[in-house]
């Protein structure tokens, strides 16, 4: 991290950049794009439903053969349209899966080509909004795509750069996501502040201790201000998985045992509760194995629900329900239900008094179930402060979609008592910071 930017090893242009440089936050769960216009004003690119962020999701419609993105993709899938939903593509970066082929409505496609397709759509929507072709972008990246493996980490960044290049971006730079978030925060400060940035994304949690001052916001090299960075490959999708395994999967046999006390094999439940692995549960081999598990069940109703989930390809639907319940419970503190009637052989009629199937999530469960993931996240935050060489920081800046979780904020506050917690633009802050950096290149 000797320099402020991580330069792409793929392409840089010798020609002057006249169009805006996009700041692209390609996230595991959500993506956002921003830029600084000719008057120096920060602008967010509306990516759907009038919002600046959209789910990092694609839906390949089997009937129309159209490709839907973001909110439209999730709506089509959850509405029961026939097709293939893909989410959390960022989780595949740095793994061999990125170059593997998957079946999309009967056609073979590499996951890498699906990634390129998503970047092309980000570029198309941005150009439509700006009104001119755009070839320059600053891409955010986590501190570690892959923990404790520099080789795979380099492969992950290279794959992301190749995907953006194949989508039509010819001027690329990279920057760590927590540093970008810090630079967005800097735009709203009035004096010097030492900040621990806590960026909790869908797939990673990243931390930076950095000195900020609005007078230095136009400098392109801020290496002297960056005191420490750390990161861990845990984020919102891991939180979803833990809650899904704790609340929903037991209703289909997770941790269930047969009459002899033998537990049901757990592999299928982990696939169904992991965003980027759900499709594996629907393969012919996996379906046959799941069907054979019937002998492991003392309660056959649980097995029937599992098979209903697999035959109906409800994995994303269940996990989306858990994700929504997680957000609602954290925001209100009130118990929230995940509706699961679609797993019943004879679901109750609308408005009837029949017993519905649901999973209950409350504040105590949220804290307990997330503890295995929150502990290493908070430990990584404390390690960042320790590496900075400072006795403490002035404030903690929370950003990223999952930073809104109350158990996370409580755990960070407990680990750093007396430090002020500040919440920022959770979904757009990284893109905004990247855009500010891009404007300094023009």
Tell me, rounded to a whole number, the average pLDDT: 90
Helix share, percent:
25-40%
Low-confidence stretches: 1-17
Beta-strand portion reads 15-25%
DSSP strand tally? 19
> Biggest β-sheet, characterized?
7 strands, mixed
State the shape: globular
Quaternary state of the chains: single chain
The helix count comes to: 12
Explain the layout of strands and helices.
Blueprint: E1 6-7, E2 22-25, E3 30-36, E4 42-44, E5 53-55, E6 57-61, E7 67-69, H1 70-78, E8 83-87, E9 101-104, E10 107-110, H2 111-130, E11 136-141, H3 150-166, E12 171-176, H4 177-186, E13 193-200, E14 205-212, E15 226-232, H5 236-248, H6 267-272, H7 284-292, H8 300-311, H9 315-332, E16 336-339, E17 358-361, H10 363-388, E18 395-399, H11 406-415, E19 420-423, H12 429-439
Helix pairs in contact: 2-3, 4-12, 5-9, 5-10, 10-11
Summarize the structure.
This protein is α+β, with helices and mostly antiparallel strands and 442 residues long.
